[in-house]
Amino acid sequence: MAKIRTKYVCQECGYETSKWLGKCPECTKWNTFVEEIEQKNSKKEVFIIDKSSSRPMNINSIETKEEERFSTEIAELDRVLGGGIVKGSLVLVGGDPGIGKSTLLIQVSSNVANAGRKVLYISGEESESQIKMRAKRLGINSDNLYIFAENNLSLIEANLDSINPELIIVDSIQTVYSPEIASAPGTVSQIKEGTSKFMKISKKMGISTFVVGHVTKEGSLAGPKLLEHMVDTVIYFEGERYNTYRLVRAVKNRFGSTNELGVFEMRDMGLVELDNPSKVLISEKPKDVAGSVIISTVEGTRPMLLELQALVSPTSFGIAKRTATGVDFNRVALLLAVLEKRVGLQIQNQDVYINVVGGIKINEPSIDMGIIIAVASSFRNIPVSEHVVVTGEVGLTGEVRAVSFIEKRIAECKKLGFKKIVIPKNNYEAVKDIKGIDIIPVDNLRQAINIVLGGNK
């Protein structure tokens, strides 16, 4: 009897070794190796190369055609996908447990089915009755929507011809397994095989496929990085589990722009899209309270206005505390150092807390000036006018640098009724002729603080 050969595979990066290791030498993660049975083909495959079947082509002779798309009937999700679902595309959906991935996808399934297209919803985590209960709660009822509680890849593939769907939802890829591979579901080998199989189905049969992927505690998709390279589009669900707002962000898209953003609100009847998130997110801004300022940011191609709050108070301990929610902590520490060195605010013995209202995370550098103004406002106890919006990147020498999409930012401010916007001086030439809003250019932090807060009080 032949000896069974085993190997150890890192579940984070896919690194293989013949013996167990505590720390992966590739991704430096601890306790990620799982034993798997090594697969060996009993017969050697002979490949015959047909030279007439494939040859290099001149780029000018290649004909292109526009991708065929169909709508999800959810405008925010269509925006993230680049205008709708591309026929034959493979989309990977990631997010924390309980954040609303399955809820959104069952809503998409219902909308597409109601439009006359057949949809197959494959679940390896829930039974048909559990999915039916969720669908009943969401008011979903369609003759074109089929539910299949199965995680065997061979059985799934065998049932495709009888249904002939135009959209497949797989929830989730970590529960799907191939009986040809001896390792357990969720291992690197099974995830690679499952994703590869659905990719072949999508391209060969022209079926659009959504695949749900679990995330690690660090927030990245579980499994090898190869999983993200294989698919056409990767979208992430963001937001706090116990917060009502959810963000859907595209981090990879072969058929549209990346970093596009969709905003939803979780309600009893499922996820509801927000057509004007700026208006909702700044509607509860307090009046005449120091430390609150409206900032202008752009996510993908969408301009958004958000409320940023800062609280500065004397520390009760020897070392001042710094806390940041919704913005990069290291960026906040850098800006506080600039504020002390270039403006002269003595906040080294002050606790500083920064928060972006609504549970939204922003990494765009244009929020720098908003952080500075909010901290200065709280430190001096001078409220910022409720009619003012600020935007601008801040450098280490205290200069205010230009930002992108300045026309879109100003248009959003005008639409929501703001009277003033403070912008970098280098952006002023492009927008100085815009009417209906007072545009104030600044070139350094001290000038910006004096204008917004009314001088050195």
TrEMBL record:
Domain RecA family profile stretches: 66-215
UniProt keyword Zinc present: yes
Region described as Lon-protease-like: spans on this chain: 351-457
Keywords: ATP-binding, DNA damage, DNA repair, DNA-binding, Hydrolase, Metal-binding, Nucleotide-binding, Stress response, Zinc, Zinc-finger
Domain of life (superkingdom): Bacteria
Motif (RadA KNRFG motif): 252-256
Binding site for ATP: 95-102
SUPFAM superfamilies noted in UniProt: P-loop containing nucleoside triphosphate hydrolases, Ribosomal protein S5 domain 2-like
The record's note on its domains: The middle region has homology to RecA with ATPase motifs including the RadA KNRFG motif, while the C-terminus is homologous to Lon protease.
Functional summary from the UniProt entry: Plays a role in repairing double-strand DNA breaks, probably involving stabilizing or processing branched DNA or blocked replication forks.
Family as reported in the entry's similarity comment: Belongs to the RecA family. RadA subfamily.
Family annotation (NCBIfam families): sms
Protein name: DNA repair protein RadA
Organism the protein comes from: Romboutsia faecis
Lineage: Bacteria, Bacillati, Bacillota, Clostridia, Peptostreptococcales
Gene: radA
